[in-house]
Amino acid sequence: MIEYIGYLASVLIAISITIKGGVYFRILNMAGSICFFVYGLFIRSWPVAIINVYAVGINIYYIIKREKKQDTSVSSST
Questions:
Q1: 21 by DSSP, 3-state: which?
Q2: Does residue 19 sit in helix, strand or coil?
């Protein structure tokens, strides 16, 4: 059962890297990283868990950065 979490994470990451970028890439990549984090905890692989917490943080950072940029461009064009 735990292996399926790892397989799901792999599929989500694989799909995300086929997307050109943007918010959909970040969301799918983050979902895959969260699954890998959970998988890492279950198999007690701390390096897998830690690097995926980092990846989630990076994705959140870029999603927020993108949203702030869009807010700025919307408010300056009105």
A1: coil
A2: coil
Q: Is 42 exposed, middle or buried (0-12, 13-18, 19+ CB in 10 A)?
A: middle
Cβ neighbours, 10 Å, residue 24 = 12
SS3 assignment, position 20: coil
Domain count, the chain: 1
Which structural domain range is residue 31 located in?
Answer: 2-77
Copy the structure tokens of residue 44.
């007690």
Q: What is the pLDDT of residues 6-59, one digit of tens each?
A: 999 999 999 999 998 789 999 999 999 999 999 999 999 999 999 999 999 999
Query: Which residue from 7, 51, 15 is spatially nearest to 33, judged by alpha carbons?
Result: 51
Dist. CA 52–CA 10, nearest whole Å: 12
